[in-house]
């Protein structure tokens, strides 16, 4: 018999979007007790910009879902093939600009509590070269982190790396079942008191993200 662990589900169709300047965004705060402060999705209009404020002792992970962006004065643009990570002991602001003048851009920002005290930024390559397999998103994060692209009806079991942690999962595209819980595009879940998570893709090209927090 499958035991249901305590969980909280965030349904995308209940999320509240707000407009700021040339962008629309929504924010999700999973659990104040976890290491994950906030998840923000931002959709930029053509040539849109946004100032993202983050707390002190934070690590900011930016994933581009669609389009291309510039971040502050960094020379290299960031696209879906890249992962941008910024870690800072001081709270500050990241200026993000849509670099595609004739198209929109869509990004996810994960703001996490830093474990070690240091400052850096990095741009890493993200290559989802295997289906039905979890791939590490970034080597720079202090939390286990994975992304996976799955075919329909593929099942997998994920064992947490750190005992006592919660798991945050977000469906980027498609549909999954997480231990009898249905999640669809942009739905998310945080599950605590769990050691192993069983999940199944319910659609083709289903994409999800995992973080242990």
Number of individual domains: 2
* Average pLDDT, all residues: 92
Class by alpha and beta content = mainly beta
The CATH topology annotation of the largest domain reads as Jelly Rolls
Helix content: under 10%
Shape: globular
Q: At the fourth CATH level, what is the homologous superfamily of the largest domain?
A: Jelly Rolls
| Strand order of the biggest β-sheet | 2-3-4-10-6-8-11
What are the secondary-structure elements, in order, as H or E?
EEEEEEEEEEEEEEEEEEEE
How are the SSEs placed, and which strands pair?
Elements: E1 7-10, E2 18-20, E3 23-28, E4 36-44, E5 49-54, E6 58-66, E7 69-71, E8 82-88, E9 92-98, E10 105-113, E11 120-125, E12 134-136, E13 145-150, E14 155-159, E15 167-173, E16 175-178, E17 181-184, E18 188-191, E19 196-201, E20 206-212
Antiparallel strand pairs: 1-18, 2-3, 3-4, 4-10, 5-9, 6-8, 6-10, 7-9, 8-11, 12-13, 13-20, 14-19, 15-18, 15-20, 16-17, 16-19
């Amino acid at each position: 018999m499958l035991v249901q662990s305590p969980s909280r589900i965030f349904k995308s169709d209940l999320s509240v979007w707000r407009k700021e300047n040339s962008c629309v965004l929504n924010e999700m705060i999973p659990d104040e007790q976890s290491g994950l402060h906030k998840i923000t999705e931002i959709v930029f209009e053509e040539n849109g910009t946004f100032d993202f404020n983050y707390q002190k002792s934070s690590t900011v992970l930016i994933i581009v879902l669609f389009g291309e962006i510039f971040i502050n004065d960094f020379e290299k643009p960031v696209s879906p093939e890249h992962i941008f990570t910024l870690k800072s002991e001081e709270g500050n602001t990241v200026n993000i600009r849509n670099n595609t003048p004739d198209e929109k851009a869509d990004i996810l920002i994960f703001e996490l509590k830093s474990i070690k005290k240091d400052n850096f930024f990095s741009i890493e390559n993200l290559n989802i070269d295997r289906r039905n397999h979890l791939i590490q998103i970034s080597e720079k994060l202090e939390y286990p982190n994975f992304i996976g692209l799955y075919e329909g009806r593929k099942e997998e079991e994920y064992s947490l790396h750190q005992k006592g942690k919660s798991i945050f999962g977000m469906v980027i595209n498609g549909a999954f079942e997480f231990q009898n819980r249905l999640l669809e595009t942009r739905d998310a879940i945080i599950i605590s008191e769990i050691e192993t998570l069983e999940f199944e893709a319910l659609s083709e090209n289903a994409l999800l993200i995992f973080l242990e927090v």
